[in-house]
Amino acid sequence: MRGKLDLLWVYAGLFIVFLYGPVLLMPVFALNDGTFATFPLKGFTLKNFSAMAANTSMILAFQNSLKIAVFVAVLSTALAIPAALALTRFRLPGGAAIQSFMMLPLVIPSIVIAVALLVIILKILGIGLSLWTVAAGHVIVCLPFCISVLMSRLEGFDPSLEEASRDLGCGAWQTFWRLTFPLALPGVISSLLMGFIISFDEFVIAFFLTGTETTLPVYLFSQLRFPNKLPGVLALGSLILVGSALLVIAAEVIRKRGVASSNPGDL
Amino acid sequence: MAPATPIIELREIEKRFGALTVLREIGFDIAQGEFFSLLGPSGCGKTTLLRILAGIEQPSSGTLLIDGQPMAGVPANRRPTNMVFQSYAIFPHLNVEENIGYGLRNQPLSKAEAKARVAEALSLVKLDGLATRNAHQLSGGQRQRVALARALVCRPKVLLLDEPLSALDKKLREEMQLELRALQRTVGITFVFVTHDQEEALTLSDRIAIMAEGRVMQLDTPRGLYERPANRRVAEFVGTMNFVPGRLRAGRLDAGGLGAFAGTAVGAMPEGAEGFLALRPEKLVLHPGAGGGGTASLTGRVTEAAYLGDRIHYLVAVGGLDRPLSVSVNNVAEGFALGTPVTVSWAEGAGLILGP
Q1: CA-CA to B228 of 20 to 30 Å: which in A105, B97, B198, B322?
Q2: How far apart are the C-alpha atoms of B69 and B277, rounded to whole Å?
Q3: How far apart are CA B275 and CA B352, in angstroms?
Q4: CB atoms closer than 10 angstroms to residue A39
């Protein structure tokens, strides 16, 4: 019995090391006073962080990614709310078909979407590539995630809540803002976070659809050829790691504090 | 018994969901200030009819007038009705006060007036002091009161109640029945009450519409329904009733080998039609011994006796009847042992002759 339990602990330990070890090495190397990301560690330094701050093109790419991610998160969520409402509230003719159609981008490889969009944007629409085209591509891949997160939240409601609101004199618009939106808020926040995270680290579509400006994943990929740039990249990576950990913790706290519901359907 | 000033007028209402017709030929009036119940088994269309009154569902055809105004095309938010939902539909993100005040924002009231109305509604349903309680901290009975206050505070012309007591335990339910009736007298608003509980409907209502399979089977006062049920189905639904099957011949019910029985015929039935002699358990009298005969008695054997204190319920098996007769007698005479041969008799006018 005892031996069995120990083996299980070893397995769990290995599992966690395998999952998170590489990620946790990043801040270690970022704080290491050496040009190469190798052991043995040489000493503690913050110079990588100042180098990162001085690397204007990387900071610019980081800002681009942030801007796109915020824009994509807001737009995908705004588009997903009416879609999720329509799919959960009405018995639409062909509702199931519409829903699977909207979920299609989940199963289409992003390389296919990227190439198709590239052809449409350049050859058919004749628009120049820019951060806008990247954002448009990202909205397409984010939408199914946002819709499913919101749908699982909206499905958990007692349908008579909205009927009661109508019965008490509220029109459709008022019912949405006074009842549906506040109740769906935890789902809306999850959807925003989902959109943000997916857009922020998306590489393939950004690589194909970007113009002269670049997003962070694309920039980092282009810098891999220069080993001396690596510590700066590690420093930025560490900051992003801390930032996203804080975001996820915040999201979880909001979800827990959200309206008691058996079906929160969050991240 | 026609209502004097109708607040609700229903004419030829039909409702179809696809190929399924859930309501047909619904046409009656509900009077101003009446406590009106829609009573029927689940799936009989009573809730759908209530939702048509509220404007949540639209009738497929027919006319509905509320306070003389045609309601076609008038959405739920513009009708002078408010509803207490079966699930209560308490808004989970608002507290008691905000729940009750929800509908007042759409009325031309100042903040102070709205606050006063909410306070008044809180005391009306005996929830004073719980104004800032959160929705999820409320008990079932309290949620029911909040739902009631939230609807009443809007001062509707008609209050619609969809089985509001079904989620409460028996004791609380009986308490709330009395309170609901008193409340209706206080506020003087017309109540339309949906229930599948015949006892509840009888206790509360001025009039009851008994519904089955999308139709109104009978519309009458509780006394009228109990004493003059229109047919066997209504009689089965309201109270306990014994039935002796047979055919109508010369104003009597001919039950073949059992004899021909006199009774009060309810409704017109053609000669030779299939019918039933309907007997309430409390109208029957037991005598020892298998004598009798005649047009108002049957003979049988006691198979079951239940002592209820003030009354004793007997089951009497009669040869030729599928089900034993249920007989309820005052606990004054001496009891009958199981297996005793007995004669069951009744006053000639006490039996009803009903169609199926």
Answers
A1: B322
A2: 45
A3: 10
A4: 11
Q: What is the pLDDT of residue A263?
A: 37
Eight-class DSSP state of B250: T
pLDDT at A25 over 90: no
B61 secondary structure, DSSP code:
E
Which two structure tokens, joined as six digits, stand for A44?
A: 């503690």
Whole-angstrom distance, CA of residue A181 vs CA of residue A1: 52
pTM for this predicted structure: 0.79
pLDDT at B292 over 70: no
Residue A50 tokens read as 């100042």
Q: The tokens of A100 are what?
A: 């699977």
In B, minimum Cα distance to A161 occurs at B89
Interface test with A, best of B51, B53, B57, B77 (most A CBs within 10 A): B77
Two structure tokens written together for A109? 């490889």
Q: Looking at the domain assignment, is residue A15 inside a domain?
A: no
Residue A236's CATH number: 1.10.3720.10
Interchain contact, B81 vs A179, CB within 8 Å:
no
pLDDT band at B3 (very low <50, low <70, confident <90, very high): very low
Cβ-Cβ contacts under 8 Å, A262 against chain B: none
Q: Which domain holds residue A164?
A: 57-257
Report whether B335 contacts B302 (CB < 8 A): no
Structure tokens that stand for A193 in this block: 């976070």
pLDDT tens, position by position, B61-113: 999 999 999 998 899 999 999 999 999 999 999 999 999 999 998 888 888 99
**Interface with B, mutate which of A167, A175, A177 (most B CBs under 10 A):** A167
For residue B4, the model assigns a pLDDT of 64
Query: What integer pLDDT is reported at residue A259 of this predicted model?
Result: 44
- Nearest-Cα distance to chain B for A169, in Å, is 4
Per-residue pLDDT of B134-149, as tens digits, reads: 888 898 889 999 999 9
Phi, psi (deg, nearest 5) at residue A54: -85, -15
Q: Which helix (H) or strand (E) holds B302?
A: strand B297-307
Write out chain A residues lying below 8 Å of B105, CB-based: 169
Which residue in the set B75, B89, B93 is minimally distant from A164, CB to CB?
Answer: B89
Superfamily of segment(s) B6-227: P-loop containing nucleotide triphosphate hydrolases (3.40.50.300)
Contact criterion met (CB < 8 Å) for B103 and A168: yes
ipTM above 0.90, yes or no: no
* Residue-range domain boundaries for chain B: 6-227, 240-354
Pull the structure tokens for residue A165: 């609101």
* pLDDT (tens digit per residue) in B14-57: 999 988 999 999 999 999 999 999 999 888 999 999 999 999 99
Q: Indicate the pairing of strand B29-31 with strand B215-220.
A: unpaired
Q: How far is A252 from chain B (nearest CA, A)?
A: 19
pLDDT at A211: 80
Tokens coding A219? 């920039």
CATH topology of domain B240-354: OB fold (Dihydrolipoamide Acetyltransferase, E2P) (2.40.50)
String of DSSP letters for A195-206: HHHHHHT--HHH
Within the 26-45 window of chain A, which residues sit less than 8 Å (CB to CB) from chain B?
none
